[in-house]
């Protein structure tokens, strides 16, 4: 039996290694995996330090502040990096560098307008949010402070898209790792000097600003390497014939992004509304640990989307299908292994890292890890649908999944407490996966 398994793994490895497209995808994913490994490690250490220093209740307050600002940001701002990759890649493949530049320019403009609107909305609604979700109006100033994160983040999406288009995943990995290190160091300093939740939020803002400076430098260099032209030579009017198509794609992906943010943050806000910051603290720890299942393959999305889009624009359907099959094989194995590790070692992990105080997080941790394993196994679905121009299919799957998740949250939280967040999370991915697989079969 063992010999058969070894032979199967050996043959699988040989088959995968012979595919140059898959090797390039793994190489690009590898740079981001290195960054994700470092980011996950530094983030995990930072999470342990913050959880132990703040305690369950203050950790819940920190989580609620960040979740509210993130949700409002996504409600108003646009997910333009997917638009930038799809259309800039299309024009670059056609050697139409002026139109590619106009797409990048459009994405920066859209993000600037929506980012400013999101900041204003957070500033005006902060007191109401503090009263409803945190149940403490003194947290209004924290929401105002962290709202600055929206302004800092305005150029991030399009700049990171440029690096992906230019296959500069190594530079992106450096930037992400640097931000993680900065957050760890600065948050530790803030907590050492007893600055509490406000100090941690300030540390996150400084780290984000430093990361933005590095990202802008890298993206400017990539902009030149891609042979894109100066802004003044690429007026937005060049896109007038394609603007309707680009606008529909942007709206659809933004709708999907909004649903994704609801999927990731609605449970936090609803737990805060119905229960307390204590329960949100347990949920924060469980989510951080469940993310360990995802971090080995999280780079796959960023690396696979440009590759899928490139093959689709080249009409190389057979290579695209082969790449998807091999990706599914690898990701499924990683997802299953990650879930089993959490299931068998969850209690030990909680005791070792954040302490016995957080043991009530275990039930929700197991459900979150199960849902994350499903997400990892079929992580090719969303980038594939976007790459082939079926963003509407992805949106409908997301809509169905989020609807099920919200219904489960509303019904289960008052009855079963914070564990409802884990059950609903797994329910989302179960529904989403079934629909995405069905829709992918319809692609010619």
Could you describe the 3D structure shown?
This protein is mainly alpha-helical. It has one domain. It is 84% helix and 0% strand. The chain contains 17 helices and no strands.
How are the SSEs ordered, and which strands pair?
Elements: H1 2-17, H2 20-76, H3 80-93, H4 97-134, H5 140-146, H6 148-152, H7 156-165, H8 169-192, H9 196-225, H10 243-274, H11 277-294, H12 298-313, H13 317-353, H14 362-377, H15 381-387, H16 391-416, H17 419-440
Helix pairs in contact: 2-4, 2-8, 2-9, 2-10, 2-11, 2-12, 3-4, 3-7, 3-10, 3-12, 4-5, 7-9, 8-9, 10-11, 10-16, 11-13, 11-14, 12-15, 13-14, 14-17, 15-16, 15-17, 16-17
Largest sheet, in brief, is: none
The overall average pLDDT, rounded, is 84
- Gyration radius (Cα, Å) is 22 Å
Structural class: mainly alpha
> So what's the overall shape?
globular
Number of H/I helices: 17
Query: Oligomerization state of this entry?
Result: single chain
Terminal CA distance: 39 Å
Estimated share of beta-strand residues: under 5%
Strand elements, count: 0
Helix fraction bin: over 70%
Total count of domains: 1
Low-confidence stretches: 1-17
Strand/helix succession? HHHHHHHHHHHHHHHHH
């Amino acid at each position: 039996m063992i010999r058969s398994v070894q032979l199967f793994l050996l043959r699988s490895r040989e088959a995968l290694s012979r595919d140059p497209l898959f090797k390039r995808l793994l190489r690009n994913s590898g740079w981001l995996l290195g960054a994700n490994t470092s980011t996950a490690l530094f983030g995990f250490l930072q999470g342990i330090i913050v959880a132990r220093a703040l305690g369950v209740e203050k950790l819940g307050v920190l989580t609620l502040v960040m979740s509210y600002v993130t949700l409002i940001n996504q409600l108003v701002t646009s997910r333009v990096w997917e638009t930038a990759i799809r259309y800039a890649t299309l024009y670059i493949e056609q050697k139409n560098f002026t139109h590619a530049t106009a797409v990048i320019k459009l994405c920066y403009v859209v993000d600037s307008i929506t980012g400013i609107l999101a900041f204003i909305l957070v500033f005006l609604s902060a007191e109401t949010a503090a009263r409803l979700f945190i149940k403490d109006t003194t947290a209004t100033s924290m929401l105002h402070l962290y709202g600055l994160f929206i302004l800092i983040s305005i150029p991030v999406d399009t700049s990171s898209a440029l690096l992906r288009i230019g296959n500069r995943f190594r530079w992106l990995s450096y930037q992400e790792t640097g931000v993680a290190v900065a957050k760890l160091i600065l948050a530790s300093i803030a907590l050492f000097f007893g600055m509490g939740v406000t100090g941690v939020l300030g540390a996150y803002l400084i780290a984000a600003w430093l990361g933005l400076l590095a990202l802008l430098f890298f993206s400017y260099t990539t902009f030149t390497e891609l042979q894109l032209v100066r802004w003044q030579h690429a007026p937005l009017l060049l896109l007038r014939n394609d603007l309707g198509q680009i606008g529909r794609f942007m709206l659809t992906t933004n709708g999907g992004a909004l649903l994704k943010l609801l999927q990731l943050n609605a449970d936090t806000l609803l737990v805060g509304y119905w229960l307390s910051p204590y329960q949100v603290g347990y949920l924060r720890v469980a989510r951080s640990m469940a993310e360990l299942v995802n971090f080995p393959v999280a780079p796959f999305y960023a690396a696979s989307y440009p590759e899928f889009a490139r093959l689709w624009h080249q009409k190389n359907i057979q290579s695209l299908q082969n790449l998807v099959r091999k990706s599914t094989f690898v990701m499924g194995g990683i997802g299953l292994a990650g879930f089993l590790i959490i299931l068998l070692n969850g209690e030990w992990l909680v005791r070792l890292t954040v302490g016995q105080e957080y043991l009530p997080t275990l039930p929700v941790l197991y459900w979150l890890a199960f849902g994350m394993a499903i997400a990892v196994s079929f992580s090719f679905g969303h980038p594939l649908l976007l790459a082939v121009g079926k963003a509407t299919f992805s949106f409908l799957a997301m809509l169905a999944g989020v609807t099920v998740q919200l219904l489960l949250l509303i019904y289960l939280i008052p009855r079963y407490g914070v564990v409802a967040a884990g059950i609903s999370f797994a329910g989302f991915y179960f529904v989403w996966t079934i629909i995405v697989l069905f829709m992918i079969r319809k692609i010619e």
